[in-house]
Amino acid sequence: MNNLQRIYHRRFGENIESRNKIYQILCNDFFQNYIPTNAVILDVGAGYCEFINNIHAKKKIALDKNPDIKKFAKKDVQFMISSSTDMKQIKDGSIDVVFISNFFEHLNKNEIIKTINEIYRVLQKNGNFLILQPNIRYCYKDYWMFFDHITPLDDRSLSEILELNGFEIIECRPKFLPYTTKSKLPQSIFLLKIYLKFPLIQKIIGKQTFICAKKI
Asked: Which of 71, 100, 152, 198 lies at a CB distance of 3.0 to 4.6 Å from 136, suitable for a disulfide?
């Protein structure tokens, strides 16, 4: 087991089932609204595939450096063990939607730019880039609780680097979800459904940004 595998296992290994249930609701009640069912979608930094396994699309691709991805990707998910900064297995303009969650904070600024440029390359024109990202403005007290966090970002700095690299911000919610799935995010299906329907609650509890950007 390499260092990346150990980090994943320590951080997520004990609550895989509960995270999967949370993502079933997040996908069905929120993220699916941004993803046509006939789309080709790429999940960058897919981790244990909680998102990509639960979203509906014509073709689903999961990419991560952790080789454990092959254990968790469902049969309808094509997995790739690769760096986000060099996705040479994926053709130019072949993806309709790219999704990233809690990933950029693990990269340095140069790697973030390279990743954004690779995503721009593989997306078709007007393709959507969906990002879920801890917002340093609201979670600064706990942001460094994870050893592998490198770069702090907020909704403004993330929007800026996207716009500088060919994307238009379609939607930005500075406060969407709580910082981690172990925090105040409602764990029951019923409460999570209510949470997603009331932006006012999100503005009180949320510490992660959601951005939908379009390739122009």
From this structure: 152
> Could you tell me the CATH number of the domain that includes residue 127?
3.40.50.150
What is the C-alpha separation between 65 and 176, in angstroms, rounded? 27
Residue 131 CB-density burial (10 A; 0-12 exposed, 13-18 middle, 19+ buried): buried
Give the total number of structural domains in the chain: 1
pLDDT digits (tens, 9 = 90+) for 199-212: 999 999 999 999 99
Split at pLDDT 50, 70, 90, the class of 70 is very high
Reported in sequence order, the residue ranges of the chain that DSSP labels E, i.e. its strands, are: 40-44, 59-64, 77-81, 95-101, 123-134, 167-173, 208-215
Q: From residue 144, how far is each of 9, 24, 113, 138, 141 by CA, in Å?
A: 19, 28, 22, 13, 8
Encoded tokens for 196 = 């997603």
